[in-house]
Amino acid sequence: MITQKTITFLISLLICGTISAQLPTKKYEKKIDSLILTGFGNQNEPGGVFTVTQKGKTLYRKSFGKANLELDVNMTPENVFQIGSMTKQFTSVSILILEQQGKLKVDDPISKYIKDYPNGDKITVHHLLTHTSGIKDFTKMKSLSSIAQKEMEPKAMVDFFKNEPVDFAPGEKFDYNNSGYVVLGYIIELVSGDTYENFIRKNIFDKIGMTHSYYASDRKIIPQRAYGYHKKEHGFVNKTIISFSVPFSSGSLMSTADDLLKWQQALNQNTLLNSQETQKAFQKYKLNNGEEFTYGYGWHLKEINGTPDREHGGSVFGFKSMGVYIPEEDMYIIGLSNCDCHSPTEITRDIAKITLAEIKASAKKH
């Protein structure tokens, strides 16, 4: 028979256990709060959203500042942001989906799809995916301002930079390049017979339930949209308007922190790609001279305190984004900002460092 004394003892054990489980959480939360507040501390300015999950469990999920200054609307963790170059992950996985379907190969020369592309028989899809093609990055071209607000067809966008002098021979160097990812978007359209926007929606967003992710638009009504801002000497201004057909498949998607977690989980679970194709995205490759570089297909492959990670940021007028995934701990950290004056890049990496240290310290105790 269980005595009152035993019941009291068990309850006290349970209470102590709960407290000891909560204490590190509160302490951890305060550490992350103070880190984020260094860059996102003013609640009357544009802000951001930061989330940390491990094995699908939320460790941290908070919003800071305003989603809309004019209407004085506070940011929430559900707000939709432009994610800039984090778009490249979706473009690279789309290429691998087409490869899995037998419709292209990453070793194919791009001349197979775009007949008149200069040196197209030497530049492969793989070169575009890994930023080793040597083609001119359109964001560095002075004439960019002449098309920035025009509605550009993908072919016209490719024609805009394809005849520029190349920076180096294919495979000779790694040099981060937006043009390569625009060409990839055009190839996706040519091979699939669909628009890039539709392809991403049908094959990724709809398939894995990313219900708050979109190809960006300034005209469509997008529920929970966070507005983008620049900071000037006299204060904040609304972001510069550009045509999303210009960054296209190199930087035109919108998403939320929660949807990006669904994306990461789908990659882990091989929902979209088989393990062989997935592996291609997350392995390091070599240049022509045999030197290894730290980029896969749409992800930088780096380390945080000696622990391998996969990461990528994004920057587009009015917005900055950063995602860090640590496979060893199944840990995903996302930082999204609605002002290009607040960068979440280093903060997101620092959150990863703190979280890793906490997990390792906790593992030692137990």
UniProtKB/TrEMBL annotation:
It holds the Pfam family Beta-lactamase. Keywords: Hydrolase, Signal. Residues 41-340 form the Beta-lactamase-related domain. Residues 1-21 form the signal peptide. It comes from the Bacteria. Coiled coil: none annotated. SUPFAM superfamilies: beta-lactamase/transpeptidase-like. The keyword Signal applies. Gene3D superfamilies: DD-peptidase/beta-lactamase superfamily (3.40.710.10). GO terms for molecular function: hydrolase activity. The keyword Signal applies. PANTHER family: BETA-LACTAMASE-RELATED DOMAIN-CONTAINING PROTEIN (PTHR46825:SF9), D-ALANYL-D-ALANINE-CARBOXYPEPTIDASE/ENDOPEPTIDASE AMPH (PTHR46825). This is Serine hydrolase. It comes from Chryseobacterium pennae.
